[in-house]
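Shipment paperwork, digital attachment
Item: protein structure file
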Amino acid sequence: MDRTAALAQRICKRAQELPETSLRELERYVELLQIRAEASEAGDEQIVFLEQLANARDYQRFAILVRGIDWLSQPAEELGKAIDLALTLQMVVIARELAELGRRLHPTDAHIRQAQDVLAPPSAQTTRLPYSQGLDASKKWLREHASEYRGQWVAVHNGELVGVGSTLDELRSGIGEDQDSASTMLTKVP
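Attachment content:
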């Protein structure tokens, strides 16, 4: 740690001559070196160190350390704890990254599988409803009888008129919930 701190101080002194952007990047790198030095001192206790950072609500140092740990050499339980700690800090992106990594490293671990499933980005699935044969019959009925109901709302189910109304609400209340389904065609006749 002393060697790393001394190196960090020398770098900071020389960095004063750099442009502001480079200086910020250099300071971040020095901080990363210090955190990694502290973590390497912790050795096998890196998870304990992560817990301390999480308890202290030190988001930045937690993020740097958790991404710097060699998870290949850590058991599934430790990775699971890190995921839970990231969630405690509401660091969902990091928790998701860890869960995806854990799924590759420990595919049989139930905790990691559950975390990966819960943290996976949302996805939408579409389903096709079965085609209703009655829809063709209802369209045919409309072509043949629409002129009799100009300006009115009609409900046609399986090719049969099941209701008429001057407004959509009137039509719906007249046909009831049983007939107001996906296979019933409700339309206003122009």
